[in-house]
Amino acid sequence: MALFRRTPIAPLEYSRTLWMRLWVGAVMVFLYAPLIVLMIFSFNDSKRNVVWRGFTLKYYDKALNNDVLVEALVNSLTIAALATLISLVLGAISAVLLWRFRFPFKGAVDGTISLPIIVPEICMGVAFLMFFAMVQWPTDLVWPFNLSAITIAHITFCFPFVTMVVRSRLASFNREQEEAAKDLGAGEWQMFRDVLIPHMKPALVAGALLSFTLSLDDFVITYFTSGPDTVTFPVKVYSMLRFSVTPEVNAASTILIVLTIVLTAIALKLQGVKAIAETH
Amino acid sequence: MTETKPPIIQIQNVSKRFGKVTAVDNVSLDILGGEFFVLLGPSGCGKTTLLRMIAGFELPTEGRILIDGQDMAGIPPNKRPVNMVFQSYAVFPHMSVADNVAYGLKIAGVKGGEVKDRVAEALELVKLGGFESRMPDQMSGGQRQRVALARSLVMRPKVLLLDEPLSALDAKLRAQMQFELSELQEKVGITFVTVTHDQDEALSMACRIAVINKGDVAQLATPSDLYEYPSNRFVADFVGSVNIFEGKLTLDEPDKAAVDCPGLGKVYLNHGVTGPHGADVWVALRPEKIYLHVPGEGKAVKAAAQDAPEGYNFARGKIHGMSYLGDITLFEIELETGARIRVSRPNLSRHDQEDFTWGDKVSMHWRADSPVVLLG
Question: 3-state DSSP call for residue B268?
Fold first, then answer.
């Protein structure tokens, strides 16, 4: 009888209707089933990925003891961290410049700044390959400088995202707050530090998250810009797949997924989910 | 007792042009120390631009502004001895109330203990004691405005500038804040310069009002002078409600004058207007200064004749429209000449509004000192 005593479904309460729940469920399955399967089979005690043969952790052991794989992971994280940091600074500065100032060719700068987002990755990859060859960028540098080419390429496609997010946040800035700060005695820099940056903060966190994840899983551009001795995680996984699809790849991927989720969760926790949602 | 204090703000021949648009046109004004000064005008008249030039957010195209005798040319907003309360209040949303109020003091390098005392004092002044740790998004609009006020007052500026301070508040709160602002101004003794488009606000708070029209000062006067002795049609019409009729000056002597208005009739004044004889002039007559008489035409004629020759200051008409506003009833009356005139009548007793109805024939008179003759 409890079934009939529920409060009736209100006209706009779609989330309680059966067909909507089924739809949402189906979407979830399509989105996450492959990931879950990948994670489950990382514990599969078999050389092949097709049939379940029992639980084991040995492929994690194997992946973590695979020096090349670990090195690739460390490379990826280093590149992502550097690219995020520099993209954040570059992106925020260009967003503020475009929002705040008038200068020659502003229209052109404004129009082309998001080009790296639009241009197909494959073209970007080829372009970088040719560019670094042309300027004869050294490939035999010591770590982490051997990652410089990849990092530069990553910054190129990451910082426009930061610019976009920060600009949309700046659009909601009340200029009277800037004037209020100056009216109370703040100079340009103090106003920037005390008023504008706090306003941009949610966008900066969102931009950093975007940059980090984009950089971490980029394959195409990295493939073209990595030297013979610099390998990143996605590129390494790809090369492993060419020999055989062992659960070791699954294990490595699971580690990466968990890492990404944890990092995102920390960032969200630090900032508060609400503030990030505000930027969009 | 003839000691004259120098003006705290001197605006000298200031103009401001944005491209081809002239926002402020050769304005000269003196604002005296300790007064509550209001810049009143319709939107887009340049009053806010004038205020922002005092604050330093806009630079005059021509002319100069002196604050306390010092030329402000080349002095940025953060170095001027004035503070501003913004229309949107511009309270910093990521800072608590106490941090907001302390902001200017911290920038100025005031020591921690003193900051705390002065913040508490300022919050007490605006009746926000105990709100120190609140965040702005937990406060109402009126409270946020008080934070903005405290944030400026704590700096002890020579002049406090307020940009449309009450426009975002509801009617009741606005009326209350009008009193509170006047009270506050008296208490702290700082010169307040307020911009508003609301004449009630201006009349109730100001020591002196400058009415601004199209970038120019239309009249500078005390509230009552502005209302009772407007110097031109713009001021008469903008401040309060008024009937304006065109006419010809037929008599102008030191102690009396008369104007023949085709729309209204013959108007008699018990003082001279010193206008050129036979000139085209305008007569302004406030709705509350017209007495309505229910039929009894004789009474109206007699009342008018008390201080004017017969046939003057008297009119006949028919009630064309009326609106009952509680304390007063507003009538629109079609005169015999076809012109319309607005008349307001206080409802002194509960049934006063029943005296008249649509289509009633009425007569009216006004006193000889009520009309204002305007030359421009």
Answer: strand
Q: Are B78 and A187 in contact (CB under 8 A)?
A: yes
Mean per-residue pLDDT, B143-172: 92
Select from B194, B216, B217, B191 the least CA-distant residue to B31: B191
Q: What is the mean pLDDT of chain B?
A: 90
Q: Does B88 touch chain A (CB under 8 A)?
A: yes
Give the gap in angstroms from C-alpha B162 to the nearest C-alpha of chain A.
12
Q: What is the pLDDT, as a whole number, of residue A1? A: 46
Structure tokens at B317: 């008409």
Domain range for A165: 59-278
Q: Domain ranges in chain B?
A: 9-236, 246-374
Q: Which of A184, A195, A200 is best to mutate for the B interface (most B CBs within 10 A)?
A: A184
- Res B278 pLDDT > 90: no
- pLDDT attached to residue A280: 41
Nearest to A185 among B57, B78, B92 (CB): B78
Decide which of 2.40.30.30, 1.10.10.10, 2.40.50.100, 3.40.50.2300 is the CATH code for B246-374.
Answer: 2.40.50.100
Chain A, residues 195-234, CB within 8 A of chain B, namely 195, 198-199, 201
Instruction: Find, among A272, A259, A159, the residue nearest to A207 by Cα.
Output: A159
The nearest CA of chain B is from the CA of A202 a distance in Å of 12
Q: Which of B178, B192, B224, B214 is nearest to B31 (CA)?
A: B192
For residue A199, the distance in angstroms to the closest alpha carbon of chain B comes to 8
Question: Residue B97: which of B123, B134, B65 has the closest Cα?
Answer: B134
* Confidence at residue B276, expressed as pLDDT on a 0 to 100 scale: 74
Position B80 confidence tier, pLDDT thresholds 50, 70, 90: very high
Mean pLDDT of A107-116: 87
Is the minimum CB–CB distance between B96 and chain A shorter than 8 Å? no
- Chain A residues whose beta carbon lies within 8 Å of the beta carbon of residue B165: none
State yes or no: pLDDT of B307 exceeds 70: yes
ipTM (interface pTM): 0.83
Is A260's pLDDT higher than 90?
A: no
Element spanning B345, H or E? strand B340-346
Contact residues, chain B, for A183 at CB < 8 Å:
55, 77-78, 82-84, 152
Closest CA to B221 of B7, B298, B229, A122: B229
For the stretch B309-346, pLDDT in tens is 877 888 889 999 999 998 999 999 999 899 999 999 99
Whether cis (ω within 30° of 0) applies to the bond prior to B7 is no
Helices (H), A121-246: 121-134, 148-170, 175-183, 188-191, 197-216, 220-225, 233-243
User: Phi first, then psi: what are they for B196, rounded to 5°?
Assistant: -155, 155
A217 close to A238: Cβ distance less than 8 angstroms = no
Q: Check if the beta carbon of residue A190 is closer than 8 Å to that of residue B109.
A: no
Q: Would you place residue A107 in the very low, low, confident or very high pLDDT band (cuts 50, 70, 90)?
A: confident
CA distance B59 to B38: 21
Closest chain A residue to B162, measured at CA: A180
- The superfamily in CATH containing domain B9-236 is P-loop containing nucleotide triphosphate hydrolases (3.40.50.300)
Q: What is the pLDDT of residue A17?
A: 84
Best of B52, B54, B78 to substitute, by most chain A Cβ atoms within 10 angstroms, is B78
